[in-house]
Amino acid sequence: MASTWLIVGLGNPGPRYAPTRHNIGQMVLDELADRRGERFREHKAGARVVETWLRPGGEKLVLAKPNSFMNVSGAPVAALARFYSVPAENVVVVHDELDIPFDSIRMKAGGGHGGHNGVRDIARALGTADFLRVRAGIGRPPGRQDPADWVLAPFGSVEQKSLPMFLSDAADAVEQLVDEGLVAAQQKHHSRG
User: Phi/psi at 47 (nearest 5 deg)?
Assistant: First the structure.
């Protein structure tokens, strides 16, 4: 029997934040939903969700975009994991990562939060850090710009040209992670950047 996977795209709610670097996780989830011709619907757990499959007869995917702000993503993620009976090892969190260059993808299972408050809150709410992460690199800000301002700014014009391919690659990474496992997905996607 196919298992269920909870795929969470982190970001902040509302149109003000939609095009920002901090919302790349939700952008990747939009790509995954678009590939399946699906639209997000409100869920009582405080998130917008799509229930779909990796492929017909394959693993069930619950794509989720919390309605909360990034730093308090844990409660909706934990509520969805309970609702769909998804164990922590089948939770995949897609999020921005300052310490990875733009257009690079890194994946890992468990470990620390690396200063990412959304990841920290999810680990607290789940009671474990043993979930999977797909980390989409946004790079560090130039010069002395505050990282908090950088993540809440839209992608620059040069970045926007390669953003569609980056989102597609990140969506591929999520699908391969579910389909073939962490090591195979790392071998393919870590060699790119």
Answer: -150, 165
pLDDT digits (tens, 9 = 90+) for 36-77: 999 999 999 999 999 999 998 889 999 999 999 999 999 999
Structure tokens given for 160? 């926007």
**Please, which residues have CB within 8 angstroms of residue 154's CB and are 6 or more apart in sequence?**
19, 20, 21
Model pLDDT for residues 71-95, shown as the tens digit of each residue = 999 999 999 999 999 999 999 999 9
C-alpha to C-alpha distance for 192 and 170, rounded to whole angstroms:
12
Going from the N-terminus, what domains does the chain have, and what CATH number goes with each? 4-189 (3.40.50.1470)
CB 77 within 8 A of CB 126: yes
Instruction: Provide the whole-model pTM.
Output: 0.96
Contacts 24+ apart (CB under 8 A), 149-153: 150/21, 150/98, 151/20, 151/21, 151/22, 151/96, 151/98, 152/12, 152/17, 152/20, 152/21, 152/22, 153/20, 153/21
* Candidate from 29-43, 66-80, 93-107, 110-124 with smallest mean pLDDT: 110-124
Which string of DSSP letters, residue by residue, matches 66-123? ESS-GGG-HHHHHHHHHHTT--GGGEEEEEEETTS-TT-EEEEES---TT-HHHHHHH
Distance CA 81, CA 157 (A): 37
Active site residues: 22
